[in-house]
């Protein structure tokens, strides 16, 4: 607690002068009614019809042709970007960033394509088409749309739940190309692709509907603790899905229902010892360690090596070369296999299984938009530009719908790529365009080169990229120390994602959010106030033990809005605090007669309730106050209210509170109420042995 | 606005004296840190371990044998009642009340028994056994447990959903006795009874579990608007179920799914014109009118005719006598038929279909306990005794479990009977005992007398008794005028009960409750404050137009706790209020060049945020404040906070707010902050053409 500075000492005179002119209001205006009558104005209570008319009038003024045109063009942000583009300032940075991000897209696209249980080239498509669309309609230059682990996982689960389980086990020892060579397996691959594209279309449609209905505000319910807990739990699911690829095992099938993850681990441990492929394991573990070290060193010495090393691409190249020359596939190591060359032509999604896909589509839409929007908002806060939730939803929607015609599955923003995109010096959304140029070239020409790449390398890329999500566990520690309620939300979401599944975790998390918002209002602090010496301030006597309390006057403050869900608690605690407890006589007495506990006189004559925390009070709250007032009156105690804001005043008026109680029990400030109570005590017949002056609070 | 009384003029001197000694705190203590340092005490921050230890220690002191015994005996409230019973004072009133209520039970029991699609005698059992149990374990003397329309309806629906649909239509033209004479129909009746008793057992079990886990507090979520809307909607379902009996139609079957009620009405109107039985209709309509008139007149002249006329019993007697002598059953009018005589012996419920019955059991348990407890609380408020939610739950639970061994279905408190019970002069729970004596005699001896009673009479009794529930529609008007949020809750519950079903309505209502609690915090008022002349008070300039604002100082107040769900709204409105809007340039200009909107100097130099409404602030809120502070600092504006309570102070400390902003921007009161801002403005280099004194607010 540092000393005040010297110039403030000099202000002492000025302040005294101001204070003496700012005297407390005269007794006439102590009572709320008089105060409002003296100083208040007409309540600007526009009827709802008036408000609606004003709003419509305002909308109509903007219905000129030019305004409509501008409004339409605003939905295509790239036009504004091109209009304001400064070639000298932005172009080089955007090109470099585009190339850097494309280099990350290539291995990640293939890896996440496999995670989706589709041929890896589809991951490359998802890194190409949606990025172009987002460049046209999106507003966040640093957000990197494309493949994302959690969304790929959820897509895979949706496909699994729909597809005919014609094989019980995917044999991950075989290459995907050898699978596709047989007719029925080819059919199954096509079936998966068609389900995935239908899903992407539906996901985009949901997002577009939300955008058109301007429901972007719903994203506020997907709060930071929720997203953190959710993505951390989902990361563990992603990690688990890659373990078979590292160790060269078959992915166990038929594990469903609650506690899916523990059951899966039990099965994996069972088959691990039996079927482990040591070469694949060695490649996987080495890749993980090498990649992790490389990224760590790159991060550590970032300031010296100005550029971001493309560690994943280097791993992919090394892995491909080594596998090619040592012919690893002949040793039972699973490889990526044939990857189709060339960009696909537009084809209609088949829209089979739409009924079964609607529910996963809604869940995937919610998760993908919440992750993308929270990242966009984080960058907007950091760099000072504005992102509009509804425009972003439009962008995400179109970037799922249109690419679904080009064999793409659902996409979202990826944190790791976005951070790289931000750090590589790009400034505008054109980064996406340059990235797609590079990626398009790769897809057109270079994909056959990746044929011998071991799957274990791709799995290593996925696992190492989960590091950021795993580190979110420190959020749990942060919330635990700061805010137990947010910690509860994080934990409930994380645990339900872990124990049940990703979509159930989403719903549990959102419900917990709502329930917590109610629960935290149910048992607030209900404190006794005392007057801080030499001031007109009334503070909690627990934290300000030197604050005085007047005998026979109790000042209370209920630190939350009073409504149905906390009214019973209010009532119980209120009577406890003013010392009125029900007489409890046990059924079987222990021998001696209990004294009659009921005193004739209540301890307090006046109870003042400071209503400043009441941001809201409902009819149940008002009825309770009336009931308490009447009950106290019977006991010879008068209840005063103070510091009532408009929310409280207008419902007291509406419910005719004053007719049921008294007109003059509501004071403007707590101090006014105390003065009123002292005056009333002094004018009442006096008990000569009692003083009404303040006494120190005895702790 | 009445004038102040004369004695208050005389107090003027006293108040001046007090006020001059209660000067504003010195500048040293204007800043929050210094204030807390000077006046604050050690934060009584018991660690959670300490709190737990104290609690356990307190529990252990009550672990003496005598305390445990008393605690056990407290769970059998009738012991206390008998211990404190004053025969002279209570006995006569209790006997009269018991007989009065029994007289209501007889016709209602039979009617609601039929509503449950069971033989009517089971309604009489439900009016007998649970009442005895409640007498032993319940705490509310005025609550009349037994049959209740809504619960009977839900029981019937549960039975329907489980039982084999062996007949498509119940022929309500036949007597239930003629149905039971055929073998397969007898089997079906037995099947229904066994399902109903299993359901009663499960309902009681749910209530007992809630009681043992001391989850009575959960009943707070079943708020007044919810119960009102719910029971009103359910009353319409009950009314609909009785229409076939009035008109002598067959109850349509196979109507399920959403919009059940409208579909049912369509079907009924279809068969009405075809199958209507005029005699039954005449009896029904006449009974309704006669009963309604009788109750109305009885209510009107209550003060003259001291007693409550047993209108329903009189109707039953008249109906029985008329039907017997005119042999109505031969004219196609459906009658009650043979009613078993005698009280049943205990038999185990069969526990078939337990899996299917769990969900209806939970719903019925929730509805029945919420209705019963809300009535108990209403009577306890009115008469000044205490009811304990957990003890009541125990009573309801046992009064469902034990009677399930005696062929009873689930029960609840009934408002109409409870009001009568209250009004007949009874004082203790022994009313139930006397009522059961009367009822037991009827069941043992008199039931065959009711054989010719027309079903239309019972239906009339049910319909007229719904009047109270229908009148709850005026609650809608009340809430509409006073509190839109509660009105929304009422409407959502009512509409979903109507359009879908009673159990879906329950869940929708509870979810709406939670959602509304969050939604109302999302767009609170965000107001500008001004200083009320001659006072140190700062009020909303909309309601106090004469309040002064200082140039270059903006005082704002956000009227709700700041957390994740309203942080985006806060941010948007904040910048709007201080006049910092993003520069919008349309893509296509309309010809003239728009002026550069950005002024060099911001309008305000100091923005003071009054944090008195912040009952809670989470990490998202604190991060937002830090971000806003930094952003304003870049624009040359300083943000001050004032009126921060402990909830805000401790999280600002925990999140190291002061390290990220400044130590001295938090003031104790808004007035302190204004003085601080004025001082800072005065000591800054002055623009000679600006004055820093207050100016009238221009509306």
From TrEMBL, chains A, B:
Name of the protein in question: STAS domain-containing protein
CDD domains from the UniProt entry: STAS_SulP_like_sulfate_transporter
GO CC annotation: membrane
Superkingdom of this protein's organism: Eukaryota
Gene Ontology biological process terms in this record: transmembrane transport
Organism from which the protein derives: Rotaria socialis
Keywords, comma-separated and alphabetical: Membrane, Transmembrane, Transmembrane helix
Keyword Translocase: no
Residue intervals of the STAS domain: 543-677
Membrane topology category: Multi-pass membrane protein
InterPro entries: SLC26A/SulP_dom, SLC26A/SulP_fam, STAS_dom, STAS_dom_sf
NCBIfam families: sulP (TIGR00815)
SUPFAM superfamilies referenced in this protein's UniProt entry, alphabetically: SpoIIaa-like
Subcellular localization, as worded in the UniProt entry: Membrane
Ranges that cross the membrane: 90-108, 128-151, 193-213, 276-294, 306-325, 357-376, 428-447, 453-470, 504-520
